[in-house]
């Protein structure tokens, strides 16, 4: 098994607090940094849909929003009655 190499990193107090707030129980700071650094950005998804696919998705989202609003309105009306 290879020896682990370590590096010292200086953080501002604010950066330290922010990193600490992302730390999970039982997780080292190295584990936290590796987990966060490995997360994908939404920008990584740019270009995976064609313009037609993106438009279909937008329409489906708008339709679902409209149905959700209508259902909430019905529930409110039922509660007010």
UniProtKB/TrEMBL annotation:
Q: Which Pfam families match?
A: VAPB_antitox (PF02697)
Q: Where is this region: Disordered?
A: 57-81
Q: Keywords in UniProt for this one?
A: Toxin-antitoxin system
The entry's protein name is Antitoxin
User: Which organism's genome codes for this protein?
Assistant: Natronococcus amylolyticus DSM 10524
According to the entry, what is the taxonomic lineage of the organism?
Archaea, Methanobacteriati, Methanobacteriota, Stenosarchaea group, Halobacteria
């Amino acid at each position: 098994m290879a020896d682990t190499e370590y590096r010292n990193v200086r953080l501002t107090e604010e950066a330290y607090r922010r990193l600490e707030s992302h730390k999970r129980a039982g997780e080292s700071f190295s584990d936290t940094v590796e987990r966060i650094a490995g997360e994908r950005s939404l920008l990584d998804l740019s270009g995976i849909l064609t313009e037609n696919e993106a438009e279909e998705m937008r329409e489906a989202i708008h339709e679902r929003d409209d149905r959700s609003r209508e259902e909430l309105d019905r529930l409110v009306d039922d509660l007010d009655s």
